[in-house]
Design brief:
Blueprint lengths: L3 E8 L5 E8 L9 E5 H6 L10 E7 L2 E17 L8 E8 L5 E3 L1 H6 L2 E5 L4 E4 L9
Parallel strand pairs: 2-7, 3-6
Antiparallel strand pairs: 1-2, 1-5, 3-7, 4-5, 5-6, 8-9
Length: 135
C-alpha cells in the first residue's frame, strides 16, 4: 500500500474546500510547493477551466513528456488526521489530465514535516512524534 494522507484543499480563488486522499510521491521532485490534482478535483475547486493566471507547461514524467496547466499559489493544503492537523501550506497546482489522484511533491512532503516510515505498507508520522500513522 502506498503512503497516503487525508488532505483538506482550499481554493484561494473562491474559498471552496474539499477533503480527499493524497499520495506522497517522493519521485515528484520539485523546488517549489507543487501538487498535482486531477481535472475533476480542479473543477470542484473552481480551477477548471484553468484561470487566467495559469500557464501551459511541458512536464517530464516517467511516462514521457505531457502538457499540464500550472496555477501558482492556487490552494491552501492541510493534512488532517483523527487527532491533529499539519500546518497550512500554500501550494502551486498542476492540473493533470492523466493522474487520478492528488500527488504531493517531495517539497510539500518536507514542508509538512512528514516522515515516510514504510513505503510499502503505507506507514508515516509527523516529524518529532512517536505515533505511527496510516491514512
Amino acid at each position: 500500500m502506498p503512503v497516503k494522507v487525508r488532505v483538506k484543499l482550499k481554493s484561494l480563488r473562491n474559498n471552496v474546500e474539499l477533503t480527499t486522499s493524497a499520495l506522497l510521491n517522493t519521485g515528484f521532485i520539485s523546488n517549489d510547493l507543487d501538487i498535482h490534482i486531477p481535472q475533476n478535483i480542479a473543477r470542484e475547486l473552481g480551477l477548471w477551466p484553468p484561470p487566467e493566471n495559469s500557464l501551459l507547461e511541458v512536464l517530464d514524467t516517467p511516462g514521457g513528456r505531457i502538457l499540464s496547466y500550472y496555477i501558482p499559489n492556487a490552494v491552501e493544503l492541510t493534512v488532517i488526521t483523527n487527532d491533529r492537523s499539519s500546518k497550512n501550506v500554500v501550494c502551486n497546482v498542476i492540473i493533470s489530465l492523466y493522474e487520478e489522484e492528488v500527488l504531493l511533491s517531495d517539497a510539500v512532503i518536507e514542508e509538512l514535516e512528514i516522515e515516510i516510515l514504510s513505503p510499502k505498507t503505507g506507514l508515516w508520522r509527523f516529524r518529532g512524534e512517536e505515533f505511527i500513522r496510516r491514512e
